[in-house]
C-alpha cells in the first residue's frame, strides 16, 4: 500500500479536528457532566479554544493545497477529500452556530445548499470530462464564510455589527458564486 503524503494527512487531520471543535463549541450547554469537570476552571475561554481549533483546521486547508501543488503531490484522494473536508468543517461550524443561536438557520441552509449544488454540478461535469476549477467568487465566498464563522464563535458583542455585515456579505457571495458557476458552465448540463 502506498504511503499517504503530507497534504492528504493534513486533510485527514482537518476532518479529525471537526470533532473536538464541535465538542468544545457545543459542550457547555449540552448537560454533559464530564464537560464541566474537564473545563470547569476555564469554561469562559472554551469558545476561544474552539476558535483556535477552527483556525488551525482552516489553515490546514491553505497549507495542504500549497504543498500539493508545489511538490506535485496532487492525488485523486486529495482532489476528492480536500473539498469534502472543507465542506464538513464549515457545515459543522455553521450548524453548531445555529444551535447556539448565533446564525439564522435559513442562511445556513442557503450556504449548504449551494455546496451540494456545486458538488453535484462538478460530478456531472467530471462525468463529461470537464474539470470545473474554483473561481475567484468561490474563493471570496470561502474567505468571508471563514471570517464569519470565526467572528460568530468569538461572539464579541462590540463586534456584532461587523459580524452581521460579514454574514450578509458571505451570503451574497454564496449566491453570486453559485450563479457564476452555473452561468460559466451551463454547457455541462446539456
What do these coordinates show?
By secondary structure, this protein is mainly alpha-helical. Helix content is 76%, strand content 0%. It is built from 7 helices and no strands. The protein has helices spanning 6-26, 33-39, 46-70, 76-99, 105-127, 136-154, 160-184. The relative contact order is 0.12.
Query: Residue-averaged pLDDT, rounded?
Result: 88
First-last Cα distance: 40 Å
Strand count, sense and barrel status of the largest sheet are:
none
β-strand percent reads under 5%
| Radius of gyration, in angstroms, nearest whole number | 18 Å
User: What order do the SSEs take from the amino end to the carboxyl end, as H and E?
Assistant: HHHHHHH
Total number of helices: 7
Oligomeric state of this protein: single chain
Number of strands: 0
Categorize the overall geometry. globular
The portion of residues assigned to helices is over 70%
Give the structural class.
mainly alpha
Uncertain spans: none
